[in-house]
Amino acid sequence: MNKTIIIAEAGVNHNGNIALAKQLIDVAADAGVDYVKFQTFKADKLVSKSAKQAEYQKKNLGNSTEDSQYNMLKKLELSEDMHKDLLGYANQKGVKFLSTGFDEESVDFLENLGIDLFKIPSGELTNYLYLKHIAPKGKPIVISTGMASLGEIEDALNVLREGGAKLEDVTVLHCNTDYPTKYEDVNLNAMLTIQQSFKIDIGYSDHTLGIEVPIAAVALGAKVIEKHFTLDRNMPGPDHKASLEPAELIAMVSAIRNIEKALSGDGRKEPTESELINKSVARKSIHLKESISSGELIDVSKLEMKRPGDGISPMDLPRVIGRKLNSDLDAGVKLEWKHLQ
């Protein structure tokens, strides 16, 4: 069975608090995800002090006067010691630690921490130097494509390949960068377009409310699912409103694992062992509608189709019509081949 990699995106929903971050790890571990992911950045390297917040950030923060993206992100940084603490805690809880580095220095730090893969966020898809820095590192790469055109994805993949990355180790996640994403903006079929265009593993990074779309993505062939989660959607912060609460994360993981089981067959259409025991119960056989004497010709008016289905199949009706019985039979008898001349 091909297992979908599920990344539970804690992101900045720790609000800069190490205790909250550990609670998020607890939730991710309890849900049975593969990775719990945070974000690694220094506000000074990520954003200029004049940069404004995105509309969804201002709305979710409910702050009409403070619109500095720098000030918002400065409060959400995780220190190097915090990273090491969270990595150890995740290992203790049995869930893999992951983080997205937003600059080359952060990527190197995460590499030194020993993370399994590099996650490239949508905002860095067009960052040439960043892509060139990750390409030769020899680890699997998962890249989100929010806000991107197919041409931009092609350009990014070319940079990665030319820098030494093997495209068989790259998974491209379809994504919409709006928080929350409206269902009509998901365009999930675009994930298949990415797969067909680049012959590459695909996945989906979800920002919709609820769990339906990532489950559908798995049914369509997503190899990786990324989904934001929080302890409580009512907490202050830019991403809580578009995140799953703990019970929803558990439900999503359970549903994805069930979908994997449903897709694990060999594709041949034939009865399973579990349904063979119901075959005779659910199907019908040819029964006598009225009494028929020995030697009497059988016509369809004297027959009826009833359960159980362990006698002559109704599909064999043409082979029965016009035959004669070799003995008298009463109405209601289930017809068998031995009854026929």
UniProtKB/TrEMBL annotation:
Gene3D superfamilies: Aldolase class I, Antifreeze-like/N-acetylneuraminic acid synthase C-terminal domain. PROSITE patterns: AFP_LIKE. Residues 285-341 form the AFP-like domain. Its EC number is 2.5.1.56. GO terms for molecular function: N-acetylneuraminate synthase activity. The keyword Transferase applies. It comes from the Bacteria. Keywords: Transferase. InterPro entries: AFP_Neu5c_C_sf (IPR036732), Aldolase_TIM (IPR013785), NeuB/NeuA (IPR020007), PseI-like (IPR051690), PseI/NeuA/B-like_N (IPR013132), SAF (IPR013974), SAF_AFP_Neu5Ac (IPR006190), SAF_PseI/NeuA/NeuB (IPR057736). SMART domains: SAF (SM00858). Transmembrane segments: none annotated. CDD domains: SAF_NeuB_like. The keyword Transferase applies. This is N-acetylneuraminate synthase. The gene is neuB.
